[in-house]
Amino acid sequence: xxxxxxxxxxxxxxxxxxxxxxxxxxxxxxxxxxxxxxxxxxxxxxxxxxxxxxxxxxxxxxxxxxxxxxxxxxxxxxxxxxxxxxxxxxxxxxxxxxxxxxxxxxxxxxxxxxxxxxxxxxxxxxxxxxxxxxxxxxxxxxxxxxxxxxxxxxxxxxxxxxxxxxxxxxxxxxxxxxxxxxxxxxxxxxxxxxxxxxxxxxxxxxxxxxxxxxxxxxxxxxxxxxxxxxxxxxxxxxxxxxxxxxxxxxxxxx
Length: 254
Ligand SMILES: Nc1ncnc2c1ncn2[C@@H]1O[C@H](COP(=O)(O)OP(=O)(O)OP(=O)(O)O)[C@@H](O)[C@H]1O
Description:
Layout: E1 3-17, H1 21-33, E2 43-45, E3 50-63, E4 68-72, H2 79-86, E5 94-100, E6 103-106, H3 119-129, H4 134-148, H5 163-176, E7 181-185, H6 193-207, E8 212-216, H7 220-226, E9 229-234, E10 237-242, H8 244-253
Parallel strand pairs: 4-8, 4-9, 6-7, 7-8
Antiparallel strand pairs: 1-3, 1-5, 2-3, 9-10
């Protein structure tokens, strides 16, 4: 059964080592002048003279099939970092992240695609990684081609695509195989009108199959429509966790 368990997750990024006196002084000045709650308040100095950004602190939650989680928070709150931690791109400094089930990610537009290869070749590569049969590969090819609607670009190298075209292909691929867990950053929703309608239909169809969705978005209407639960991140911590309407009501008036 697919699930996500995040337990006391902490993610830090080292910024500077204390080699440079002027740098140290600059950071020291900044740290002492910060107001509590300001966006940069998670800059800290550790015992080894390093300045680190403490991006996520003490994050715990779990998700079961059918749950669709929206992540909200101001710029820099830690939403993308949390998604990347779930995807295994970042290792926890402390705590643990456990995902059970097949995972699909829509986090960056390249999606591990080889830009030197054509769209069609990338589909075959994707099929090869997924261990698909010849028949399944042909189906995947047909399905993604119809969805991405790239015309003759399908047989051109991905490096010749616009960013919107790359998103179409990436979205088509990531949603073709119905992963049990889908991790998605909101800018994937930034396609043109007709594509957006198709993308939503396809994603909604996936989510209905008791999969787990985690999406980061600044759009309250998406949260209300797609999510069963919302976590509000503030300066790397969970400020509120609950049903979309409850969390959004407080968030939008804060
Ligand atoms: N590799 C890194 N090195 C240092 N700091 C980083 C790194 N990645 C992210 N950060 C910092 O971590 C904080 C959280 O970034 P993140 O991208 O997760 O925020 P976000 O909530 O997704 O923001 P936005 O809504 O603007 O996309 C920010 O202060 C950012 O500058």
